[in-house]
Every structure is written in structure tokens, then in C-alpha cells.
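testing teh design pipeline on a random one, pls ignore if ur not involved
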């Protein structure tokens, strides 16, 4: 029987860029790795995985996150060594300014690190490397590895390591980080960005020591009672607009405080809207008084691009089928604005059948 080896994929990165990065990594460097604000499983997994890998190559690597991330990610390898920019502004700024190389992972516009951190990053003279899978990257660096066809930045980090011929350096901790991000960004391997390559990489990561069952339990089965009560509230706030195959959920500050909200509690709520038969567009609006915004998560099935929708109307972006955005209006008005936009998308929202 013929054994099928899976090929090394061409990275969507020029040879020149790859060789420049490779060369930069040939001598020990002080490296800083930055995920986006409110980092998710993919951003944290890619940052920690890359950081552990670079340490194994002999570099000093420090992950600096713009702000805090959810509890359900705090079991990850070296999560305790992450510095939060928002909390340790001076220390983080000093480390960034003394670094020799920066990796930007899982985002493609500097402003996704927040105003204060953007100011520090945009004045740097050192090389910045972007590894990201979101649409429409900004041009703030020449060293770009951007591939919107790949499910997760963690898969891109794996493929980058593969291209460097250093898969042997992936140990159980690195494998655990990369597995986690691929899992969370693919909705546990079910979104359409999940390919056979994704599954082969996942299989390799398990062989390298990622404990798939433990990882699933740590991320998904650590709910709190009050968190589930908040989900109950979200579901009772769920509205369906059949005419536009759309569903939306609202969560107010009052809902959050009633159920003892903590960061990460609303993760995945938006997907309940999308799980309804015939729904192709789902949105959750979450009031955030501390930031003075309504944070929106948008999801779609088929060809309706929530990236475009969020970019055009709600200062956001992301992927075709998963994006984020915000509004500075009240919760009520934001929903009104949103509802008023739907009629112009009626045909896009109704011609999705083939993709369901
Ligand atoms: P979530 O709804 O889970 O916060 O984000 C969904 C996707 O959209 C993620 O890939 C996330 O990185 C991206 N995203 C979320 N908020 C924003 C935003 O304000 N701007 C952009 N460009 N992307 C976002
Ligand atoms: Mn991602």
C-alpha cells in the first residue's frame, strides 16, 4: 500500500520575506509576541506556542497581551508568564522598546491592540512580522504571512515551523498551545475552514503530546453555574427575524451583573442563534459600560460576509463567516440601527440556501 505523506504547503508569504525572517532567527534575539486585544484561544495559543518554540531555538521570547483573556484559557502552558500591557504599562513598554523583533499574531491592524499599545508599536524601528488569517491586512510591515484560507493562526504557526524544518522542536507544551487555537477557531473542527490538512496537523499534534481530551475539557467543560444562567438569559433575549434569516441576542450590563459576569462567559453564545434552522446571520450585542461600547460578535453561514458587514457599519472586521465590531450608541439604538440595515441585504441573506 502506498503511504500518503502530506505535502509542505507553500506559505502565502514571499520567499524574500520567509528568508528574511529565517535569517533574523539565526542568531539569538529578544523577541516580543503580541496577540490582539481580548485575545481568544487562537491568539493566546499562537502566541504561547510561538514563544515556546522560539525559546527552544535559543531566543528570549515574551508574550505581551494588550489586556486580559478569559479564565478558560488560563491553564495553558506558560500562561502565567504573559504580561498584560494594560496592567503593566511601563514594564511592557520597556520590554517592547528593548526588543529586537516583534511578532504580531492573529490580527492585521495595529489598532487592534488598543490606543496606548498602538502608540508604542507604531514608532518602533525594528522588524515586525505579521502572522494572521484575517481579511484585508493593513500595510504596517513588509514581513507578512497572511492567509485568509487557513482556519487559524495556530495552524499557520505550525506550517511556518514546518517550513523552517523545525517540526522536531514541537514538544507537548507547544503542541497543546497550537491544538487549542485550531480547536477554538474551527468550533472544534466543524467550520468550513477545517480541511484535511487541519486534521493531519491535529493528528501530528496529538502524536507530539497534545492531550485532546484534556484540552477539550479545560476549554469547554469549565462553565460556572452563573455563567450558564447568563446563557439562559441570553437565550430568552434571542430574537429571530425570519424574513432576513437573521437571529440576534442582546446582553445588557444589568444581565451581566445579575449573573456575576466574568470575561469569557459570553464566548460562543452567538452560535446559538446560528444553530437555528434556516438562520444564516447571527449577532450578539453585549453592553460594555467600562469601555463605553456595545461589543458585537457576528457570524454567518454561506456567502454572506460578516467581515464586510462589520467593516462597513460597525468599525470592525474579521473573516467572511466570523467577525467582530462595536458601536458607541446605546444598546437599544444599536439594535435599531442594525435592524434598519437588514432590508438592503435581503437578497444576500436569502440566497444562501446552497451553502446550508
Ligand atoms: P469575536 O466575535 O469572537 O470577538 O471575533 C470574531 C472574529 O473577528 C475573530 O477572528 C476576531 O479576531 C475578529 N474581530 C473581532 N472584533 C474585531 C474588530 O473590532 N475588528 C476586526 N478587524 N476584527 C475583529
Ligand atoms: Mn484566529
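output:
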Amino acid at each position: 500500500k502506498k503511504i500518503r505523506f502530506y505535502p509542505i504547503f507553500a506559505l502565502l508569504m514571499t520567499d524574500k520575506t520567509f528568508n528574511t525572517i529565517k535569517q533574523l532567527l539565526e542568531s539569538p534575539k529578544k523577541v516580543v509576541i503580541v496577540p490582539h486585544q481580548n485575545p481568544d484561544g487562537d491568539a493566546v495559543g499562537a502566541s504561547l506556542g510561538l514563544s515556546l518554540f522560539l525559546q527552544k531555538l535559543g531566543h528570549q521570547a515574551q508574550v505581551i497581551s494588550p489586556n486580559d483573556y478569559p479564565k478558560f484559557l488560563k491553564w495553558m502552558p506558560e500562561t502565567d508568564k504573559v504580561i498584560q500591557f494594560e496592567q503593566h504599562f511601563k514594564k511592557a513598554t520597556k520590554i517592547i522598546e528593548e526588543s529586537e523583533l516583534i511578532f504580531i499574531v492573529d490580527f492585521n491592524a495595529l489598532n487592534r491592540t488598543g490606543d496606548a499599545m498602538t502608540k508604542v508599536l507604531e514608532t518602533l524601528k525594528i522588524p515586525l512580522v505579521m502572522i494572521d488569517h484575517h481579511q484585508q491586512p493593513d500595510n504596517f510591515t513588509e514581513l507578512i504571512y497572511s492567509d485568509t484560507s487557513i482556519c487559524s493562526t495556530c495552524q499557520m504557526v505550525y506550517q511556518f515551523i514546518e517550513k523552517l524544518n523545525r517540526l522536531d522542536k514541537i514538544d507537548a507544551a507547544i503542541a497543546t498551545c497550537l491544538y487549542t487555537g485550531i480547536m477554538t477557531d474551527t468550533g472544534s473542527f466543524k467550520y468550513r475552514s477545517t480541511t484535511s490538512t487541519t486534521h493531519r496537523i491535529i493528528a501530528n499534534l496529538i502524536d507530539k503530546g497534545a492531550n485532546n481530551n484534556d484540552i477539550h475539557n479545560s476549554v469547554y467543560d469549565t462553565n460556572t453555574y452563573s455563567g450558564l444562567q447568563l446563557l439562559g438569559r441570553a437565550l430568552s433575549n434571542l430574537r429571530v427575524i425570519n424574513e432576513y434569516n437573521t437571529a440576534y441576542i442582546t446582553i445588557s450590563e444589568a444581565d451581566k451583573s445579575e449573573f456575576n459576569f466574568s470575561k469569557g462567559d459570553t464566548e460562543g453564545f452567538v452560535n446559538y442563534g446560528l444553530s437555528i434552522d434556516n438562520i444564516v446571520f447571527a449577532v450578539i450585542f453585549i453592553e460594555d459600560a467600562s469601555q463605553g461600547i456595545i461589543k458585537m460578535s457576528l457570524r454567518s453561514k454561506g456567502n454572506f460576509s460578516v467581515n464586510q458587514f462589520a467593516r462597513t457599519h460597525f468599525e470592525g472586521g474579521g473573516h467572511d463567516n466570523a467577525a467582530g465590531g462595536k458601536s458607541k450608541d446605546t444598546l437599544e439604538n444599536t439594535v435599531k440601527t442594525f435592524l434598519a440595515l437588514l432590508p438592503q441585504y435581503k437578497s444576500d441573506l436569502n440566497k444562501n440556501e446552497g451553502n446550508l
